[in-house]
From TrEMBL:
It comes from Acinetobacter parvus DSM 16617 = CIP 108168. This is Trimeric autotransporter adhesin YadA-like stalk domain-containing protein.
Length: 149
């Protein structure tokens, strides 16, 4: 009877071991470098501890950690969008100010050139009158006087 009990116990252990292997996480090879999780729709791991997040970490990251990262990225994106808008406004305003000032300089230069032209015309008119002898200043063209001695 002891042998029968032992035989039954051994058979039960084999069955339980087979069931355990079917539901246990088992390395894919003796090197223990890969585990394949074979859920029909993928496999979700739960109850994980947060990973160490540093340059040398090989820990798995949790959903909580990813959520915190996504929240930070979303906040950063909002700040960047705001700052880009602020910069665009500042650039536009500066460009408008520069254009207005350039327009003002163009106007002043145009006025100064017109004043200078008037003065040159006035001076040249006075010069040709003083020279006499048919000297003329007409539309920026000087006609030499003719003198007979």
């Amino acid at each position: 009877m002891v042998v029968t009990t032992n035989t039954n116990d051994i058979a039960l252990l084999k069955t339980n071991t087979g069931n355990l292997a079917a539901n246990a996480v088992i390395y894919d090879s003796a090197t223990k470098d890969t585990i394949t999780l074979a859920g029909t729709n993928g496999t979700k791991l739960t109850g994980l501890q947060d990973a160490t997040l540093d340059a040398t970490s090989k820990d798995a990251v949790t959903g909580k950690q990813l959520h915190a990262t996504n929240t930070s990225i979303t906040a950063l994106d909002g700040r960047v969008t705001t700052e880009v808008g602020t910069l665009n406004t500042a650039i536009t305003n500066s460009a408008n100010t520069i254009n207005t000032r350039i327009d003002g300089v163009d106007t002043r230069i145009g006025n100064e050139v017109a004043t200078l032209n008037t003065r040159v015309d006035t001076t040249n008119t006075a010069l040709v009158q003083a020279l006499g002898g048919g000297a003329a200043w007409n539309n920026g063209v000087f006609t030499n006087p003719i003198f007979t001695i």
